[in-house]
Amino acid sequence: AGENFEQTPLRRTFKSKVLARYPENVEWNPFDQDAVGMLCMPKGLAFKTQADCREPQFHSFIITREDGSRTFGFSLTFFEEVTSKQICSAMQTLYHMHNAEYDILHTPASNDKESCSSTGDCNGTSVSKLQRFNSYDISRDTLYVSKCICLITPMSFMKACKKVLEQLHQAVTSPQPPPLPLESYIYNILYEVPLPPAGRSLKFSGVYGPIICQRPSTSELPLFDFPVKEVFELLGVENVVQLFTCALLEFQILLYSQ
């Protein structure tokens, strides 16, 4: 993905694509494959081994169209074992190429080699470099690749959508299959669970337990289903107070994030 090739192959990102979507067409919400793919995996496709942390990660996004209409996306990214021997072999080849390029770029000059041979440190250095960068061995390591499941909704029911995605992921990875076929749960969420009326809450069945979503009435504050605690954890109390002050004074606010 146009990254610095000094990065090891497992630290690079690769182009992702949408594998499937359901339903195929929604009249009020045309599907933008490129936008959804980029927003679901903003850092691209990633590979890891059994030595890396592979905990599922949840995030949300907003798609704003030219007419100002919005749809909300909620995605759960997890890692799945790569079963294709071709992809595993390709990763091994990338590592061989990377190590060869590294050795060429960092080979010491002839004078340095002579000094190294006199001190006897060169061999140890090259071995340590090889161990450092050759971190994928097809005969020893298990390769994993990132995959994402996403829900796109007309309103930002973040907590309910997060539970739905987590339960779907649990059903896929659990050794015991759920009571009903997975497709029936997806169909139920998309077609049989109604949008709760204003001022009411709705309880519906997930794969492993009930899920509740609540919609404020017209006399209440607009729907904001995101935990404020995370803002304080990310920014700190002083920055939140400063941000709130700037908002009250109508200052321009710019948030910069990776």
TrEMBL record:
**In Gene Ontology terms, what is a biological process of this protein?**
retrograde transport, endosome to Golgi
Name of the molecule in the record: DEN5A protein
The organism that produces this protein has a lineage beginning with:
Eukaryota, Metazoa, Chordata, Craniata, Vertebrata
A Gene Ontology molecular function term for this protein is: guanyl-nucleotide exchange factor activity
Q: Which GO terms describe its cellular component?
A: cytosol; trans-Golgi network
Q: Which UniProt keywords apply?
A: Guanine-nucleotide releasing factor
**Which PROSITE patterns does the entry mention?**
DENN
Per UniProt, residues of the UDENN domain are 1-258
Source taxon at top rank:
Eukaryota
Supply the gene name: Dennd5a
The protein's matches in InterPro entries, at most eight in alphabetical order, are given as: cDENN_dom, DEN5A/B, DENN_C, Tripartite_DENN, uDENN_dom
